[in-house]
Amino acid sequence: MKPSMLEAVETARGAPPAPAQRRTRSPALAVAGELARAGADALLLAPRTALFLARAPTLRAAVRADLAERRAVEDAPPPRALPARPLRLFLASAEPSGERHAVHLAQALRAELARAGAPPPEILALGGERTRALGIETVGDPLERAAMGADPLRSLPFYASLLARTAARLEAFRPDACVPVDSPALHVPLLRIARGQGLRTAHFVAPQYWGWAPWRVDGYRRVVEHALAILPFEPAWFARHGVRASFVGHPELEAGLAAPLPDEQRAGLVLLPGSRSGVIARNLPWMLAAAAELRTRLPGLEVVLPHDRADRRAELEAGLRAAGATGWVRLALGDLHGELAGARAALSVSGTILIDLLQHRLPAAVIYRLGSRLAAWAAPHALTVPWFSSVNLLAGRPVYFEACFRGQGPRAEVVAYLERALTQPAWCAETRAALDDVAARLGPPGAVERAARHVLALASGGAGR
Q: Distance between CA 205 and CA 47 in Å, rounded?
């Protein structure tokens, strides 16, 4: 998501930056600098966008070449001699999915160090209840603010205070490595502060700058020593922009899932309207209307609304009532993979949920409804990729039907696609064969463990103290 938009980025080459010299800049001044930078970025957004649009065809051609890259997962070399003292590590997450990965990363780091006979690490973090449940001290909880859904301007004092507290704690704690997970809007400024203090930095779940706002990669290159990417084509793109990146695999791939069920043991359609309140409100009514139309063609079709967040029950039930769908849609909270395993097709929003669908080789129509005319105009112009769903990007072709739109959109096409998925076994077999190839590109499970080994290699290579 800089004299000009890409010129400095495209000429940035060479080895990753060495640890920065420790500066005497106070945490308050560091945060003030980030606020000033954010203001300048806002002022420069219009000219950067204009320059981007002028170069969009060239950028899109380059990204298409990167999408064809087939790369195996990259594990880390054995770390250098670990110190006798406990390693100090700083982890950060800003939303539920990121915290889930950060918690798994903390567990993997502890396990790797125990396996090496090293003492348990001392971990400081930004995070919520899951993080604290591991006995990890947190400086603050960005997840609470994210759950409120407040607009960025109203949230600015909260995040400025959070960055100031974190900067002060980093100065005192002096971790051997700082490793935020996902959420570049918060974590890139945080990494800039860490680099200003001479700390080593990695970032797990590299940002999708290749798909939007590619000019942001210049600032990213300056603050991230090692990006841990979850899609196989990302390292090639980041390498062209001077960022050291390793493909570790996708953290949503779960080991131990049962093999996908054959068609004769599957039945019904699952609706997946997203996890955030605003996304659910925009997409669920449309999905229910499409499912109702589909049931007129396929009477008795089983429709399930599975969700892994019980705290969304009230708004999901309200959406079903408003659509008059409580009698023919089953709400299922908790066992997402169990419901996906028994489904024949899915109507889903875009996002990491598509990786869950991929694991079950489930044909899907992917939609994303937009809330404003500006967003509807920007979507086709701002993206540098030919598709927005991860499965199609990995396949290099539209295996999943996808549509991003405002208003009613292509309901007839979506219904037709889903009817085919529910009634044509030969077509489904071809789709699942394509999904097999996509899954192979993502590599095996174990992304978090590989990421942990990369973090330890970085941390043991320089204490940053």
A: 28
